[in-house]
Structures are given as structure tokens and as C-alpha cells.
Amino acid sequence: MPSTSFPSRLGLVENLRNYLLAGQWSAMFGGPLIGKSTLARRLAGELDDAGAKSVFLQLPLLISDSAFWPLLLEALLHQGIGPAARNPFKKPPASLPDLMSQLHHLYERAPSEIAARPVVLILDDCDHLLRHETIIPQIVNLALESTLPSIQAICWVGGPAFADWVAAHPGTFKRALRLYPLSVIPIREARKIIREHLGPEKPVEEIDRIWNETGGHPLLMERAFNRQETPSTKSLRDQLRQTLRPEDEAVLGQLDPGGRWTILDALKDKRGEKIPKPALDRLCMIGLTVRTLIDGVAAIRITSPLFAQVTEQ
To answer: For the ORC1/DEAH AAA+ ATPase domain, which residue ranges apply (predicted)?
Structure first.
């Protein structure tokens, strides 16, 4: 998703920045087109502003395990040392030992103030690692063992599939991960953004209308403000549909397709029992639902009436 014309989820990025600056590791998860890459890039900028050295790598589809190491070397070289830095090695690294050897050589010859500056590594689109999952523990080993450069922390960024993998393999990371499941833009923050874009002369009813139509989803809000150069809502719905599990559809089927609020405790599974909290949290993380308190009572709604078609085949 291209960068939105408005910053959002400012508190989350600030909290995550401070956590990484303290040397702690984290993982940020979110559904399709919910703004993961936008937030990750802003996080990198805030880390740099705070005096750290961020290295941001958006992972492409990898044709092989060995294709990863040259990408990481280039990111650490050009972002960690400088955009003009050159790699004198003719053969790109094909393994973790190759990478560590070349990095040590490059950072050893870098100015001392650069070599001494710990790196915070931000890996985006980590779902692309799942077909090459043996790389993940090697990245962990690199961070724990490398002295040049010294990798202070890692932030892993991915979608629902990567979130499931992390939950199933907690020991792989050898460090406690602070998990940051995203959601759409919180209601109060979203309404403030809408008000700022509309201007003070617009009535509150117009703010209500746009929020009810978008539910705070960043892509839908971007389209409401500027309908140019944004992915289509059909593309978003198609991607959301691919994330659904049967239990997700069972919850969505109980929500009003027009976006009216439903009391959370009224939702039941097939056995007539309350929906487990992790299942509700997953729908928020994907971006399909919004939750709030109404007079102290928990309520839930589908994010946007446009998403009522997600469960349709």
C-alpha cells in the first residue's frame, strides 16, 4: 500500500520505537493493505531521529534461500554505512557465514562512529520468509552473534500467516517478542483525521458519514479523501477473503452488514458459547472488525459496509 496522506496510529509507533531503542525485539502484524509498510517506514524514520541507526528491508518473493543474503547485505551496507558505500567482494554472500564475514570486513573499515552505532533491523513482508523458514533462525543467530555491525533489536513485520507462524514457533526467536497486532485507525484518532481533512466548516454529520463508510480503515479513508492512486476496494476485499477461516466467517455472519453495532456478548459459536477472545482479536488485526465500549458495554461492528461482501463467494 502506498504511503497515506495522513499519519495515523502515532501512539503505537512511538511505543514500538521506545521498545526497540531499549534493545527489545518485537513483531508487528496486520491484515492486507492496513498500512503495515507505511508504519514500518515511519518507525524507521523515528528511530533515526532518536539517534539509532535503522535498517529497513522490505522482503520480496525469494526464489531460493540463498537469494536473501545479498539483499540483507545491501541494506546493511547502504543504510548502515552509507548510500555511497561499495562492496569490494565480487561474489555475493550465499549463506549466513558468508554474510557475517563480508559484513565484518565492511564495518571494520567504516568510520568508527558508524561501526560503533548499533543497528535496529526492520524486516517487512516477513510472510515471504515462510517458504524459506530456515532463514528465520539464521537471522536470529546473526543478530545475537554479530559484533560488526552490532544488531541491537529486530522488528518483524508481517501478515496473518506470519502471525500464525510466530505463535507456533516462539522458541525460534530466542528472545521474548513484544507483539503489536495492528487494527484499523482507532475511532477517536480516525474522526480527528477526518475532521482535519474536511475542514472546520463541515458539519459533524459529514464526519459521521465518512467514519461509518470507512470504519477507520486507512485505505478506505485514503480513497474518501483522494480517490487517485489507491488500490481498489475489490482488491482489498479479495485479499481479505483469502485470510478468512471458517470460524471468522461464523462471527462475521452474526454482524449487521450495514455496520450497526452488535453487543459482543451476543455473539456465539456453533456450540452456543462465547467467541474466544483470540478469534475476535484476529478479526480486528485483519481489519475486518472494529470494537468499542458503548455505555461501558463491549460492542463490535464490521469495519465497513463494503466488507459485507467479503464472505460471499
So the answer is: 30-136
